[in-house]
Design a protein that fits this description.
single chain, mainly alpha, 2 domains, globular
Length: 151
């Protein structure tokens, strides 16, 4: 039995279409997973509230408030909002300084770092962010301690 050119073309075209569909679905699934933390934090609005609470607490925290002397709180909030948004999988771009460069002159020690983490946790508690979601964000932020702690 002789095959027509259509017979040999059809399985290859179908296979390509199936592969493209699978790639698209896989990409969508990865995207849905990649932004899960962002969504769990409440998206941009939730992250903005968390950052607002954290920065306000840090400026009032007697353990670390001196570290923020001369730092514009509005600019800091915006920078952190973008950083948390991008880090958690949101559609934001963080264009600020590296952690190493922005903290080099601050002489941050481990106690300072831990105080800020506590302020972040309190801000997330206030926004009723579940503990497991808090831990996912903290796990992404934790490696930054190497660049932030300078003494």
């Amino acid at each position: 039995m002789r095959r027509s050119s259509r017979d040999s073309w059809w399985p290859a075209a179908l296979a390509r279409r199936v592969l493209v569909a699978m790639a698209l679905l896989t990409g969508l699934a990865a995207w849905a997973e990649d932004d899960a933390l962002y969504r769990d934090l409440g998206g941009e609005e939730g992250i903005a509230r968390i950052v607002e609470g954290m920065v306000d607490r840090a400026y009032a925290d007697p353990r670390i408030q001196k570290k923020f002397d001369g730092v514009n709180p509005k600019a800091l909030k915006e920078s952190l909002r973008r950083q948390f948004c991008a880090l958690s999988g949101g559609n934001c771009a963080y264009e600020g300084e590296t952690m190493k460069k922005s903290h080099a002159h601050l002489a941050v020690d481990k106690a300072d770092f831990n105080a800020l983490v506590e302020d972040l946790q309190l801000a997330m508690d206030e926004q009723k962010v579940p503990f497991t979601v808090q831990n996912r964000l903290l796990a992404l932020l934790a490696p930054m301690h190497r660049d932030i702690i300078t003494r």
